[in-house]
Structures are given as structure tokens and as C-alpha cells.
């Protein structure tokens, strides 16, 4: 009798609702079609997470920033992915330390992203 029950007419997408539950497939009413995604105007959060070469418009992850020293308030321009230790020109305080990717700013140092 169970076999006869599964031979009922299928939904518009060809999935039987009972089979969707058995195979852990999403029900046809909850399926998201790929046509629903706007490829020309993707969400900013989604683009930010993509690799820099796979974005709709290629853009680097790195930038230059002005870092203010916590001791003497001197402003130094630093590359965001600096691979060397950057020290203040006046008081020789360490402003940032390199990591595998972005440089880690010293606690208490404030920064702002440089514009064009």
C-alpha cells in the first residue's frame, strides 16, 4: 500500500512531497531558483567575502592608512598588509606588526583609511 501511495501525481517540479522528506531534499515550495539572484547588483556583503579576482569588478583587499601614534600623536602612513614592523618616526614606538595577511595595529593606535 505504501508503494501505491507514492504513485500519486507529482508537484510542478516533478518531486513528490513524501520523497522530498525521505531523501532530505528541500520541499519544492522552499527551493530557491538560480534565476532569483541579481548578478549585476550583488549584495555588498557577498562581494566583500569573494576573492579579489572573482568579484564583479576586481578590487584589491589592501589599502594605505594614516596611523596616529598613541604617545606623540604623530601621523604615519602605513600599508595595511605591511610585512615589516613599522615604528613611529619621532618616538620609535611600534605602530604595527606583520601577520600572515593584514598587519596588526598596536593597542591604542587609531587609524583612518586613506582616500584617493
Written overview of the protein:
This protein is of the alpha+beta class and 116 residues long. The protein has 2 domains: 48 residues, no CATH class; 50 residues, N-terminal domain of TfIIb (Single Sheet). The chain contains 3 helices and 6 strands. The strands form 2 sheets. It has a 3-stranded antiparallel beta sheet with strand order 2-1-6, with no helix packed on it. It has a 3-stranded antiparallel beta sheet with strand order 3-4-5, with no helix packed on it. The radius of gyration is 27 Å and the shape is elongated. The model has no long low-confidence stretch (mean pLDDT 80).
List keywords for this structure.
three-stranded antiparallel beta sheet, single chain, 3 helices, N-terminal domain of TfIIb, 116 residues
Summarize the structure.
The protein is built from 3 helices and 6 strands, in the order αααββββββ. With about 120 residues, the protein is an alpha+beta fold. It is elongated, with a radius of gyration of 27 Å.
The biggest beta sheet is recorded as: 3 strands, antiparallel
Please tally the β strands and state the result.
Answer: 6
Going across the major beta sheet, what is the strand order? 2-1-6
The Cα radius of gyration reads 27 Å
The pLDDT mean sits at 80
SS-based class: alpha+beta
What is the fold named in CATH at topology level of the largest domain? N-terminal domain of TfIIb
Query: Roughly how much helix do the residues carry, as a percent range?
Result: 10-25%
In the predicted model, the low-confidence regions spanning at least 5 consecutive residues are: none
Number of domains: 2
Order of helices and strands: HHHEEEEEE
What is the CATH first-level class name of the largest domain? Mainly Beta
Strand content: 15-25%
What is the terminal separation in angstroms? 72 Å
What is the second-level CATH architecture of the largest domain? Single Sheet
The number of helices is 3
CATH superfamily of the largest domain: Ribosomal protein S27
